[in-house]
From TrEMBL, chain A:
<keyword id="KW-0375">Hydrogen ion transport</keyword>
<keyword id="KW-1003">Cell membrane</keyword>
<dbReference type="Pfam" id="PF00231">
    <property type="entry name" value="ATP-synt"/>
</dbReference>
<dbReference type="InterPro" id="IPR035968">
    <property type="entry name" value="ATP_synth_F1_ATPase_gsu"/>
</dbReference>
<keyword id="KW-0139">CF(1)</keyword>
<dbReference type="GO" id="GO:0045259">
    <property type="term" value="C:proton-transporting ATP synthase complex"/>
</dbReference>
<dbReference type="GO" id="GO:0005886">
    <property type="term" value="C:plasma membrane"/>
</dbReference>
<dbReference type="InterPro" id="IPR023632">
    <property type="entry name" value="ATP_synth_F1_gsu_CS"/>
</dbReference>
<dbReference type="GO" id="GO:0046933">
    <property type="term" value="F:proton-transporting ATP synthase activity, rotational mechanism"/>
</dbReference>
UniProtKB/TrEMBL annotation, chain B:
<keyword id="KW-0139">CF(1)</keyword>
<feature type="domain" description="ATP synthase F1 complex delta/epsilon subunit N-terminal">
    <location>
        <begin position="33"/>
        <end position="97"/>
    </location>
</feature>
<comment type="similarity">
    <text>Belongs to the ATPase epsilon chain family.</text>
</comment>
<dbReference type="InterPro" id="IPR036771">
    <property type="entry name" value="ATPsynth_dsu/esu_N"/>
</dbReference>
<dbReference type="InterPro" id="IPR020546">
    <property type="entry name" value="ATP_synth_F1_dsu/esu_N"/>
</dbReference>
<comment type="subunit">
    <text>F-type ATPases have 2 components, CF(1) - the catalytic core - and CF(0) - the membrane proton channel. CF(1) has five subunits: alpha(3), beta(3), gamma(1), delta(1), epsilon(1). CF(0) has three main subunits: a, b and c.</text>
</comment>
<keyword id="KW-0066">ATP synthesis</keyword>
<keyword id="KW-1003">Cell membrane</keyword>
<dbReference type="GO" id="GO:0005886">
    <property type="term" value="C:plasma membrane"/>
</dbReference>
Length: 322, 151
């Protein structure tokens, strides 16, 4: 049986933990609203942009042959963009993405394919380094604030396109001091793994193809099973560029990739705060419950000690009367 | 009488407040009615007036001009798309937008000088060199902001 002092120390420590978790939960709750608003604004932009991209691509004939970013890559290698947080204490947020990426990377490796990784967020980098011995080609700090997303997305998107087109350059590490660049790996497919913000309490790990830019499903808004006619505006846009359709695509596709990366990042940022809030809320509740149990135990012990002392005094007095 | 079209600029940061010159939170933030708008399309500067055909075209970094509230307004935009819908709504989807009165001219011009200097190194590099392309894109965006602030 624990003695009184031990229980007292335990209660104090749990109380301190609860202070931290409840503060973190409140901070996350305040940030959540902002992140959620930012994400919703970005979702507007993202869906409109994806819509335009989709409409134009489905209007083009044999689009895959028109631009390298649409064509199947010639390389067998695959690259993963793994988006996690820089910090922990957010429930299963990081580990869900990490485990999924680890599983896929290992499966691909077993199939004899080369796998490269670009990480956003320290947690993903550390985990993958430890479990799959992969060194990320490049690493970005996870965006903390919604304002940082656009810049990070731009950087990542540029890297992805370079990687896919085989323009990736490695810093010269041979140490001859000439600083010339070596040609790096080339990949035939790029996927992104991230947490999708479903709602405030649910995050969902998503794994999407980034490059080659996926061809859209035929749009069928009225649901009659026959793809809708493309809008006149889209046809007009495509026609305006003929025969230089590549020029249109050269504008469209990088924008599409960048928007897709942005969407993933915005979702991840919002999902991170949501996950942290839920996790810290739970932790605070658990701490409160634990404190209750410990206090009860403490009072019982104290009462038992008093009773024991009383018994001893009475026993002593009885003996003296003897 | 005068006809109007609805102008709306969407960026990943949300809808740009075109209504007021104050900061974002001040007033309701919806599409505004304008008589026309000029913007930098990929095939050249273009203007949109009411009853334009439904239309879709890429937008390159440059300056968007329109008249609202009795004032000429300018705005620097980045790459993106223009969409004119059937009901006469003009939507500019762009990666970023800065209103001309928010441009910090000094900071931008000094950054432009730096970019220019960095580009000198790539004069002999192949035209599709990744880093020089990145710098050129940056320069285009800085130029757009400067032009929005000056013109």
């Amino acid at each position: 049986m624990a003695n009184l002092k031990e229980i007292r120390i335990r209660i104090k420590s749990v109380k301190n933990t609860r202070k931290i978790t409840s503060a973190m939960s409140r901070i996350a709750a305040a940030r959540l609203r902002r992140a959620q608003l930012a994400m919703e604004a970005a979702r507007d932009y993202g869906t409109r942009m994806a819509g335009i991209v989709g409409e134009i691509l489905s209007e083009l004939e044999d689009a895959a042959s028109l631009h390298p970013l649409l064509a199947e890559g010639q390389s067998d290698a695959v690259a993963y963009v793994v988006i996690t947080a820089d910090r922990g204490l957010c429930g299963g947020f990081n580990s869900a993405v990490n485990r999924q990426s680890e599983r896929e990377i290992k499966a691909l490796r077993e199939a004899g394919r080369e796998v490269h990784v670009i990480t956003v967020g320290r947690k993903g980098r550390d985990y993958l380094r430890a479990t799959t011995q992969v060194t990320p080609l490049s690493h970005h700090t996870a965006p903390n604030k919604p304002e940082e997303v656009v810049d990070v997305a731009k950087g990542v998107a540029n890297e992805l396109i370079a990687l896919f087109e085989g323009r990736w350059e490695l810093e010269d590490t041979t140490g001859d001091g000439e600083g010339d660049t070596l040609t790096g790996p080339k990949v035939g497919e790029i996927r992104v793994v991230y947490n999708y913000f479903k709602n405030v309490i649910t995050q969902e790990v998503r794994d999407e193809q980034m490059l080659p830019v996926p061809m859209p499903e035929p749009i069928d808004a009225d649901g009659d099973g026959v793809p809708d006619e493309p809008r006149e505006a889209v046809r007009e846009a495509v026609r305006a560029f003929e025969p230089e359709t590549e020029e249109l695509l050269a504008h469209l596709l990088p924008t599409a990739v960048e928007t897709a990366v942005q969407q993933a990042l915005y979702n991840s940022v919002a999902a991170e705060v949501a996950a942290r809030r839920a996790a810290m809320d739970n932790a605070t509740d658990n701490a409160t419950e634990l404190i209750g149990e410990l206090t009860l135990q403490y009072n019982r012990e104290r009462q038992a000690a008093i009773t024991k002392e009383l018994m001893e005094i009475i026993g002593g007095a009885e003996a003296l009367k003897g | 009488m005068a006809e109007y079209l609805n102008l709306d600029i969407l960026t990943p940061d949300g809808r740009v407040n075109l209504r007021s010159t104050e900061d974002e939170a001040s007033s309701e933030n919806t599409a505004i009615e304008v008589e026309g708008v000029e913007l930098p399309a990929a095939l050249g500067e273009m203007g949109v007036r009411p009853r334009h055909l439904p239309f879709l075209t890429p937008v390159v970094p440059g300056v968007v001009r329109f008249r609202f509230g009795g004032q000429d307004r300018r705005m620097a935009v980045g790459r993106g798309f223009l969409e004119v819908s059937k009901d006469g709504t003009v939507t500019i989807l762009t990666e970023r937008a800065v209103r001309s009165w928010e441009v910090d001219t000094d900071a931008i011009s000094s950054e432009r000088d730096e970019v220019e200097e960095a580009l000198q190194e790539f004069r002999t590099a192949p035209i599709d060199d990744a880093r020089s392309m990145k710098l050129k894109a940056r320069r285009a965006w800085l130029d757009a902001q400067l032009r929005a602030a000056q013109a």
